[in-house]
Write a structure and sequence with these properties.
This protein is an alpha/beta fold. Helix content is 43%, strand content 15%. It has an eight-stranded parallel barrel, surrounded by six helices. The protein binds the ligand O=c1ccn([C@@H]2O[C@H](COP(=O)(O)O)[C@@H](O)[C@H]2O)c(=O)[nH]1. Ligand LLZGTKA7 is lined by residues 12, 14, 38, 119, 122-123, 159, 181-182, 191, 193, 211-215.
């Protein structure tokens, strides 16, 4: 999908109702950011909310992290493409057959296909927590392995921590899109995030898109918080 927005910021609209999500979108500017609809908001507000955001001029990242049998995931990403979203994602740990099925399913959308992104290891996960799930590899190696598989299956990029971005760009190439949540401006609360970096650190490590929720949406003035982050990135 051809994009009109040069900003790297994707604001996570993590709300439990349509009115709150649209009120936040109304305080933002589609020329300065994209927006992300995740599991909570989509479960409560559904496709209508996604269409409403698209109609308001926002490029939408549908962050549902699909993980299922290949046929189901292929159908799900096609449904997302029909909604007009700019980006959609699947769990890279769902396997290569699943990722290839998703990638193949989007071919019929040609140039208007959404970016297809694989989730590697969640930014809330520590190395110890990953090991406890039975993954024997060190966390960074696991991220690189999943990203390499995502690339070979035809995905456009991955979700990872910005801490892994520099290495991933080396391994997967500069065109492979890196979407990085776990972004925390200096002094802001990490909350449940564990592998964090500041906005300017993330960009300097090679992140293409920064997913930012609470540091913007919980700010007294979300638009000002967004503008301050953009200024920090621009080095102003
Ligand atoms: O690895 C991941 C994948 C997705 N997320 C999502 O990003 C936002 C982050 O919100 P903050 O308030 O800035 O922490 C949230 O919607 C997560 O579901 C992630 O954090 N890490």
């Amino acid at each position: 999908m051809h994009s009109q927005v040069s900003s790297p910021i994707i604001v996570a609209l993590d709300y439990d109702n349509t009115d709150a999500a649209l009120a936040m979108a109304g305080q933002l500017d589609p020329a300065l950011c994209r927006v992300k609809v995740g599991k909570e908001l989509f479960t409560i507000a559904g496709p209508e909310l996604v269409r409403a955001l698209v109609e308001r001029g926002f490029e939408v990242f549908l962050d549902l992290k699909f993980h299922d049998i290949p046929n189901t995931v292929a159908s799900a990403v096609k449904a997302a493409a029909r909604l007009g979203v700019w980006m959609v994602n699947v769990h890279a740990s769902g396997g290569e057959r699943m990722m290839s099925a998703a990638s193949d399913a989007l071919k019929e959308f040609g140039d208007s296909k959404p970016l297809l992104i694989g989730v590697t290891v969640l930014t809330s996960t520590t190395p110890e927590e990953l090991a406890a799930t039975g993954v024997a590899k060190p966390l960074k190696e696991q991220v690189i392995d999943l990203a390499s598989k995502a690339k070979s299956c035809g995905l456009d990029g991955v979700v990872c921590s910005a801490r892994e971005a520099q290495e991933l760009k080396k391994v997967c190439g500069s065109d492979f899109v890196l979407v990085t949540p776990g972004i925390r401006p200096t002094g802001s609360d990490a909350g449940d995030q564990r592998r964090t970096l500041t906005p300017s650190e993330a960009i300097s490590q090679g992140a293409d898109y920064l997913v930012i929720g609470r540091p913007i949406t919980a700010a007294a003035n979300p638009l000002r918080a967004l503008q301050e982050i953009l200024s920090e990135i621009a080095g102003k």
